[in-house]
Amino acid sequence: MPVLTPEQIDLPNQAGALDAQGRPKVGGGERGLGVYLQRHPQGYVQIEDPLPISAEESVAVFWCAVASFAATEAAAAALAAQVAYILAGDSLLPGPLDEVTPAQPRALASGAWLVRPTYQTLTIGGQHVAAQE
User: Fold this and answer.
1) For 13, phi and psi rounded to 5 degrees?
2) Whole-angstrom distance, CA of residue 103 vs CA of residue 86
3) In this structure, what DSSP letter does residue 31 have?
4) CA distance to 72, 120, 121, 127, 133, per residue, from 91 (Å)
5) pTM of the model
6) Which of 24, 56, 70, 122 could form a disulfide with 129 if both were Cys (CB 3.0 to 4.6 A apart)?
7) In terms of C-beta density within 10 A (0-12 exposed, 13-18 middle, 19 or more buried), how is residue 31 classed?
8) What is the pLDDT of residues 14-55, one digit of tens each?
9) Rounded to 5 degrees, what angle do the CA atoms 4, 33, 101 make?
10) Degrees (nearest 5) of the Cα angle 98, 101, 103?
């Protein structure tokens, strides 16, 4: 499953047929998210740019949305659950981040579903500090 960085946020929108030089093919048919999901049937994860929430001297809090995209509601929810476990853990083994805004699957279009929760990270002196119980 691809995990896209903030710099790659437009990559799925550019998916489509390419010409011999690797450029978008004129009249090449369907383009965009639907094509990208066809190429990645297990879905993909998009990490968005972190948003600074607060900062005091050397301590800062950031929120970052991490979106899971898939062709079906069940697949998007399952992918988001995997991401949540990796990032936030569970009650027995907390992960490195706290989930601050949970999300439910929502349809973007026919054959495209999204789950987009937000996670919080704390930095001290520019270094990430793991979430606390």
Assistant:
1) -70, -20
2) 16
3) B
4) 28, 17, 18, 24, 8
5) 0.84
6) 122
7) middle
8) 887 676 776 666 665 677 888 899 889 999 999 999 999 998
9) 55
10) 120
